[in-house]
Design brief:
Elements lengths: L3 H20 L4 H12 L4 H7 L9 H37 L19 H15 L3 E2 L5 E3 H4 L24 E3 L4 H10 L4 E10 L11 E11 L4 H16 L4 E8 L2 E11 L2 E11 L1 H7 L7 E8 H9 L12 H4 L3
Parallel strand pairs: 1-4
Antiparallel strand pairs: 2-3, 4-5, 5-9, 6-7, 7-8, 8-9
Helix pairs in contact: 1-4, 2-4, 5-10
The structure holds adenosine-5'-[phenylalaninyl-phosphate].
Length: 333
Amino acid sequence: MTDLAQLQSQLEEMSQGAKDIISNAQTPEQLEQLRLDFLGKKGKLSQILGAMGKLPAPDRPVIGALANDVKVLVQTLLDDRKTTLQRLEIAKKLEAETIDVTMPGVFPFLQGRSHPITATIDRVVDILVGLGYTVAQGPEVETDYYNFEALNTPADHPARDMQDTFYLQDGLLLRTHTSSVQIRFMEQNDPPVRIICPGRVYRKDDVDATHFPMFHQVELLAVDEGLTFGDLKGTVRLFVEALFGECEVRFRPSFFPFTEPSAEVDVRWKDRWLEIGGCGMVDPNVFKAVGYDPDRYSGFAWGLGIERLAMVLHQIDDIRRLFTSDLRFLRQF
Ligand code: FA5
């Protein structure tokens, strides 16, 4: 005999039981099984509703309403538990897949590095900026005026033969030295001057162990009242020692049209002297070309060959090695 109270208590029991069982389900599969057990065609709720037909007609809506409440409750419990299980799953995955970005990579990463010429320029610039110089730049395609004329080297001057020039069209040329930047800077700036100009230069030189048709120089120019050759020598020595450490330096009297007196700077390397650059006191004619008063100002300048510095620094016996892109060579630096 089925009566109202019996079905009511069965529904109560079902909703109580569902709360415990569903909140303990551990997998989506278990949840699906519970859904079938409670709400499926042959599930508990169907069985209870099946018995409803035997109730007196006025009691049926009471059970119908209660059964509906239980159905909604069970469905809500199933949905909530499903969401909880999904969250737990994600948290578990995140923990398992945590990436330690500080771990070294599995593959040997190929690490880039500076070319020895670039690295040498960087070191040279660092040292000279440390001495108070600032970097100035100029074009590699120059006019005859900036490369020669304003540097006290007119067209018929025999010193033009010292630097065999690549001429371009329309009176242009590839600068043969960074000294052209001296003129460009002084034209635009009043003294005092303390600049360096690292850059590429070009000459029709025959290639050998110490010469290449394209190479790098770093120009230095200081202009002020009262600068002397002693200041120039001191600066060269300070620079060479900062770059190479203890090392023998020699000043050889020389000639440049734009400096007077002039000297070549040699560094002792592998039991022989290697010329690293030229230097001297700025010629008064150069000051006149840029509108500086030569009676008031004096200055010194140098142009050092970067490749030669790199050769001494790294014991490189042939300049061509710096330009052949041989990785076996480059990977040593
Ligand atoms: C000059 O170029 C002058 N402008 C330097 C200078 C500047 C003197 C300011 C006075 C005042 P020189 O031609 O000697 O000088 O070249 C300077 C340095 O460039 C050389 O000592 C050498 O280290 C380097 N050099 C010259 N020709 C080559 C070449 N073909 N390949 C590699 N390095 C070179």
